[in-house]
Amino acid sequence: MSNEPVTLFEGQEIDVSWDGRLCIHLGECGKAEGDLFVGGREPWCRPDAVSRAEVREVVERCPTGALSYRDKTGEPEPAPGENRAMVANNGPLYLSGDLEIEGAPDDMPGVRRRVALCRCGASKNKPFCDNSHAEARFEDGGAVGSRGPGLSEHGGPLKVRLMPDGPLKLEGNLTIQAGSGRLAWEGTQTALCRCGASKNKPFCDGSHRAAGFKSD
User: Measured between alpha carbons, how far is 178 from 192 in angstroms, rounded to an integer?
Assistant: First the structure.
C-alpha cells in the first residue's frame, strides 16, 4: 500500500480509489462476494476481476466514502433519490445522498454521496468518524423521538454546514433513520449533535457550550 492517503487501483474500464483518511474498516468491501477485494492479496483491489457494474455496486456499499470509483465511460456515481441520515447504535452518523459538505476537500470525491460523521465528539479527524467512539465508550442507541415536519418531495442537494464548536446544520430534503432501522424523522432543516453531550440525540440541544466542545 502507498503511504499517500489515497490509493488508486486502475482497471481497463473503471478505477477504484481507497481513502485511508475516511476508512473505519466496516468490512462492506472485504466481505463482498467475488474477487474485487481480497484481503492479503497484492493488490488488494482488482477492478478487472469483476464486471464494471459489480465494481460500482460494491463500491457504493461503502458508507464512509472511503471507496470511490471513476468509470471510464464518464458515467459518475448517481446521487440517491433520497437523502438519508442513519443514526448508528453507539456510533457515527451515516449520511447518504446528494451531499454538499462544507469544507470537504476536492480530493475526497466519495463524500459527495456517502460519509460517516462523528457524533461522539472524540474523533481526531473531525468532522469524519475515526472509530474514537469505541475508546470513548460513547453510548447512544440511535433512538429518534421526533417525527419532524415531513417532506413534500425527496432528493435534491443536502447542504451540511459545520458550525464552529457546535452542531451539524443540515439543509435540504432529509429522512433520518433510527438505529433500529425505523424511518423516523423527515424535514428540510435540522441541527444534529456532534459533541456527544446532547440529551436529545441525535438533535442538538445546546449542550456543546457547557461541554466545551471544540470542533478543531
Answer: 13
Give the model confidence (pLDDT) of 189-210 as tens digits: 999 999 999 999 999 999 999 9
Contact 130, 117 (CB under 8 A): no
This prediction's pTM: 0.94
Cis, bond preceding 63 (omega within 30 deg of 0) = no
Rg of the chain in Å (alpha carbons): 18
Q: What is the pLDDT of residue 3?
A: 60
Q: Which strand (E) or helix (H) includes residue 208?
A: helix 207-211
The answer to whether residues 22 and 100 belong to one domain is: no
Domain termination residue (choose one: 38, 71, 104): 71
Whether 1 shows a pLDDT value over 60: the answer reads no
Domain count along the chain = 2
> Which residue range forms the structural domain that includes residue 27?
6-71
What does the alpha-carbon distance between residue 137 and residue 104 come to, in Å, rounded to a whole number?
A: 27
Dihedrals phi, psi of 7, to nearest 5 degrees = -110, 130
From the CB of residue 148, how many other CB atoms can be counted at a distance below 10 Å? 17
d(CA 66, CA 57): 14
Same domain, 27 and 114: no
Average pLDDT of span 110-116: 96
Say if 1 falls within a structural domain: no
Whether residues 57 and 104 fall in one domain: no
Instruction: Judge whether 78 lies within some domain.
Output: no
Q: Are residues 96 and 163 in the same domain?
A: yes
